[in-house]
Amino acid sequence: MGKYIGKRILQAIPLVILISILTFTLIQLAPYDAVDSITTPDMSAEYIEALKEEYGLNDPIYRQYLAWAKKTLSGDFGYSIVTHSNIKEALSQRIPATMLIVIPSYLVALMIAVILGLIAGAKQGTLIDKIVDGFCSITMSTPTFWMGLIFLYIFSYKLNWLPSLGMYTTGQEKSVKDLVWHMFLPCVTLTIAFLPQMIRYVRSSTIGQLAEDYVSVQRTYGATEKNILFRHVLKNALLPLITLVGMSLPMLVTGAFVTESIFSWPGVGPYFLGAIRGFDYPIILVILILSSSLVIIGNLLADILYGLIDTRIKDLGNS
Amino acid sequence: MKNRRFEMLKENFKADFYAKLALWILTAMALLAIFAFLSPHDPNLTNVKMMRNPPSAEHWFGTDEVGRDYLTRSLYGARVSLTVGILAMLTSTVIGTVVGIVSGYFGGIVDSILMRFVDILSSIPWMILVTVISIFIQGGIWAIVIVIGGFSWMRAARIVRAETLSLNQREYVMYAKASGQSHFNIMKKHILPGLLPTVVVTATIFIPDAIIIESTLSFLGLGVKAPMSSWGSMLKNSQSFLSDSPHLALIPGLMILLTVYSFNKLGNLFRVVVDPKSAGGN
Fold it and tell me: What residue stretches are annotated with the ABC transmembrane type-1 domain (chain B) (predicted)?
């Protein structure tokens, strides 16, 4: 198993390096450089030249790349061109804000999906399966942003039950209750957006398990359907979910882009979209490399976890 | 073989009410989009006297924020959304198929390089990749088609490659190689036809995705720009008037929902016929 993990890590590292080179190339293509982002019009040309020297912009390109990689790895992400603010500071506020709505939504969706997927899979072809399938087909065909808009209209504008914007009510003291109240609509939207894919995953996994030999054996021994489903199928059907959860790691940063911008939630989404509109490339590139690394790490984790559980893969690594 | 599949498709289609409904919806949507110019209202004629009117006998879908007939606008929006969806599908399918065949057929170093490239592109979260590309490529419907279609062919490439690898081992392909046919001819005459069912399914399943992506990009202001409008950009405009004129937000969204649902439905029908194993899963 150790060999397998080692091999997978060795495969992931060049990928991260290649993406960082790609990102760095994009920086080089951009019409500004890091010094432009900190200069102001009243600085003298000599001072700017000295700054360029200090930042190493006159060095050969591979040394610039190494210096940039070292800085990025140590968490120094530089400054925004538009607002001159520190990107690391901004992200350290925004990533937790995004996680605050993504994690609860993901967990709730996972729980609902396990229940509905298991029932639909066990009762394949019945009315309840058709209802669940209809729900999946419809939510899958609904753009998330539109769903958000409709919720906003119904629950916030018409019924006036829930607040429409931001994390806290402006002018009020910050309280947990207020926060939860504001989290509600974005979380419901996200949960529904996550659901269809998860439900279908659990459902098809359940159907696959029910066709296995051990289920027939259990049936011939007279085990009840309920017993088979919860004692045996549940465990085996949920194992592949680990892959799905692992691959969802990047969602912690990029999972709520659209939802955040509809509800003006101060997460990574609006920050990134603002950067895109203003061509604030240092921010764009930091998020690009951060989220890509999370994708690679997530896939790696999923593979390793799955390998730890499924012995057939374990053997593969040793051969 | 092909005929049997076609018969099966026809039978499945006949037995499925929702699939028939989906085909009707799409046909109607396409015809309405094509013949949108027959509408008695000019899509660009503004009228300050009737801004954001609710649906009425004269304006079935009401009017928008500058008094234009919303039904006519929606139909012209359908043109853009459907065109982008189909063109992006074609772009993505062509690139994915070519990369997949070349990679699977030649193998070795060509395969390694192409697949590492696919790995890199797939490691960047899709939303991020597409938004970043959208700032480099701008202007008109083709820009959006390139942004969406040009950067979403990775999955298709992987599927086609896997399929090509297995076709490569077939005897008729080996004979063709032994008889000294050119690589291009073998790929075109012997491998591509075998890939067709897979390619058709992958392509059909991609159209609804492309439509949702186009609408999302346009909603975020990164896609279709005025004076052109798509369902997504109509929704973007409606956002400011949500509390007073909900019909502006409701209508384009429902059009997207109906279209995407119908494409998904038909895509699944194709998939079940081509790959019966997946039938249990869906």
Answer: 78-267
